[in-house]
Design a protein that fits this description.
This protein is of the alpha+beta class. The protein folds into two domains: 6-190, no CATH class; 191-223. The chain has helices at 119-123, 192-222; strands at residues 42-43, 47-49, 58-59, 63-68, 81-86, 99-100, 117-118, 127-128, 151-156, 166-169, 174-175. The chain has a five-stranded mixed sheet with strand order 1-10-9-5-6, with no helix packed on it.
Length: 223
């Protein structure tokens, strides 16, 4: 597992979502009396778009904020890793091999005193979402993340040990582009709704045409 080159992290001023898909949340035991997100749970808005975006997939190279609400899961002394992982079928992975170590955050990230995480506020930078495998990282194989293969962010202490404190972002999809330019940024939602509506519309058109044809035949028979 190699660390993402720091130069790929876009540094900005610290001043500067919806997700769709079927999720399977892997919830592990958490300490009694714990508040906020529990170990292995999904934070529905953790992968947060920044600036003006359209409804639809993230764009490869798009920079987002990573946000987790306050709670007792994360100690302020922990180093937090953010890593992109494959989530086939929108299902949270259970095997660390689903995570791409090359996508790990460059700058050091720690929780705030209340256990919350805000990547942009702490690091002064944003996290780069990529379609995977990414040729610009020298990858030809590995976890897959694109329009047809869902992904998710691991946010926690050790992406190689899913028993260590961690949460998941919402599941998202990513539109590839050759230069990881982040052009036409989206909010991470898949293009599935349109794909579903097209066949439904086609059924409606075909059904309507069949009904008209039947009525015309009936009218001819009565004439």
């Amino acid at each position: 597992m190699s660390i993402r080159h720091v130069a790929r992290t876009v540094v900005i001023s610290a001043a500067a979502v919806a997700a769709a898909g079927t999720l399977t949340v892997v919830s592990l035991a958490s300490p009694a009396g714990a508040t906020g997100p529990t170990n292995g749970s999904t934070v529905a808005t953790a992968a947060t778009p920044v600036g003006s975006v359209a409804n639809g997939p993230f764009s490869s190279g798009q920079n987002i904020n990573v946000v987790v609400p306050a709670g007792s899961l994360f100690s302020p002394t922990l180093n937090i890793n953010v890593v992109e992982c494959a989530a086939p079928g929108g299902v949270i992975p259970t095997d660390p091999s689903a995570c791409d170590g090359n996508t790990i955050n460059g700058p050091t990230l720690k929780p705030n005193a209340d256990g919350s995480i805000n990547f942009q506020s702490y690091t002064g930078s944003l996290y780069e979402i990529l379609a995977l495998p990414d040729a610009n990282l020298g990858e030809t194989t590995g976890p897959t993340c694109d329009l047809a293969h869902a992904c998710v962010l691991y946010i926690g202490q050790n992406q190689n040990d899913f028993t260590a404190p961690h949460v998941w972002s919402q599941v998202f999809s990513v539109k590839p582009n050759a230069t990881d330019s982040g052009a036409n940024p989206g909010d991470g939602t898949p293009e599935v709704p349109m794909a579903i509506m097209l066949p439904i519309a086609a059924i409606g058109i075909i059904g309507g045409a069949a009904l008209i044809h039947r009525r015309r035949n009936n009218a001819k028979a009565k004439a």
